What we know:
By secondary structure, this protein is an alpha/beta fold. It is built from ten helices and ten strands. The strands form two sheets. The protein has a six-stranded mixed beta sheet with strand order 6-7-8-3-9-10, with helices on both faces. Strands 2-1-4-5 form a four-stranded antiparallel beta sheet, covered by helices on one side.
Amino acid sequence: MALLEVDDVHTYYGNIHALKGVSLTVDEGEIVTLIGANGAGKTTTLNTISGIIRPRTGHVRLGGQDLGAVPPHKIVSLGVVQVPEGRRTFARLTVEENLRMGGYTVSDAEIQSGIANAYDMFPRLAQRRTQIAGTLSGGEQQMLAMGRGLMSRPKVLLLDEPSMGLAPVLVDSIFDTIRQLHAAGTTILLIEQNARMALQVADRGYVIESGRIILSDLAANLRENETVQNSYLGIA
């Protein structure tokens, strides 16, 4: 049984049919990437999994449990945590206060442990623990958003465009962190405009186009797929 299962999901914004029968699975310990053009339905898929948007039909399951009627904050408690596109840090709070906000579902002891782990993973955050989050660089805010997401010890981490707007050296650093999380056993569903990098770190991948999954395969096979190369990897 897959740890996370999206089964024939149809999601709408009013009359706009955004997801048209999306199905995907993520097994425990995997990195699965969902790639596609802007507006293809990637973020809508994550928001549907998180319960921010409800599917009109279809099911989202975690460990076999249907999440259809579970409120978003309870979905976090069950182990699905989204690191949103654009970081969405609490700009007026300090780095450490942001991390504490991510640990609202766990005990005080686990919060302390989580903060220590975040500082170990991102030493730059430790140096800026009392700094206001809104004054951090884009790369530092991405580190903070990921550290905050890990505070509740998720079973599945949903990463939405972690490299967006970052300098190449910081992109490499973020993907190194994703590899470390994978090596430590964290299960990840990754959305990423940089399809080349995403397919290098992922075990499997899906390609979404106009709200439909059009391809799914091992990441290594998708890297060699002519359609993927022409449309997403810049290989003519």
